[in-house]
């Protein structure tokens, strides 16, 4: 199964329908969301890269990236419509297209194909979250690296090593050693 | 938001419609699924407790529990219809109701209310998986314990401490110390 397929199809559909409401340009290091805020937008990254992270006792944990042609959202806040502790930050100058949840859900509920696709997107998100849980629980740094590299080679083109190391829960030194070997 | 609500509603609906195809009784320690197998069933736990885990370099990582009146599935295999490395095992004598995916999806696609509910179930699964990811990434064992205890107090009634400790990624000794304090 290609779990990416429904997400790519959803992006095409949103583009076709010209549903995006606005464009947003973020400077390098600019925040899109901070801890304690509500964010019920879907974002499509046109250029650049967004990192999602949480801060736990002064340590940052990177939990997701969005790079060119990816959808990204503060999913917990998007679903619950409540504040969440996620941060979203541009790793470099980034261009996004923005779609608010109410507009998106209105579209999805009035279009059977879109509703079917949205349910498939949710399924693939559940699947990806399970992969992510398995990544985090993998004890060996080398095995963690291989799992993520095989699944998401593009990540290693788009994101600076410092943040990949944080995502893989290893030091930048360990990541550098693994990449050389 | 009560993310459990759609799951409870789905169970009621499946009961009302008498959609379950069979009952299954598992002895204590009996396996429902092992690594490398496909499992595309939904299970509803009537009595007992099921643990889902993976084995990583001889270490077990507990990733989910299903206890009375909960739905449980090997979600990765259920979604992809491919083999997965999850194990499912009864922690004590357990009684389950079983529903195969093709029957379930047939029902969901022919019933607008059920489809709407299934999409809400998927949303709440994404939300719960994000909570789980945040749990695992929480550095302090005490904070991990508190997060899970506040969200799922029933877990601590249903599951032996040994497995709760595995789920919380701490030693049984650390869990015992936290519970006494």
The biggest beta sheet of chain A reads: 4 strands, antiparallel
Regarding quaternary structure, what we see is: homodimer
**Weakly predicted, low-confidence segments of chain A:** none
Radius of gyration of chain A: 17 Å
Number of helical elements of chain A = 8
SSE string of chain A, helix = H, strand = E?
A: HEEEEEEHEEHHHHHH
What name does the CATH topology of the domain at 5-111 in chain A carry? Jelly Rolls
SS-based class of chain A = alpha+beta
Major beta sheet, strand line-up of chain A: 1-8-3-6
At the fourth level of CATH, the homologous superfamily of the domain at 5-111 in chain A is Jelly Rolls
What's the CATH class of the domain at 5-111 in chain A, please? Mainly Beta
State the end-to-end distance of chain A.
31 Å
Strand content of chain A: 15-25%
Using CB atoms under 8 Å apart, which protein chain pair has the greatest interface?
Answer: A-B, 36 and 36 residues
Cα shape of chain A:
globular
Mean pLDDT of chain A: 94
- Tell how many strands the DSSP assignment of chain A holds: 8
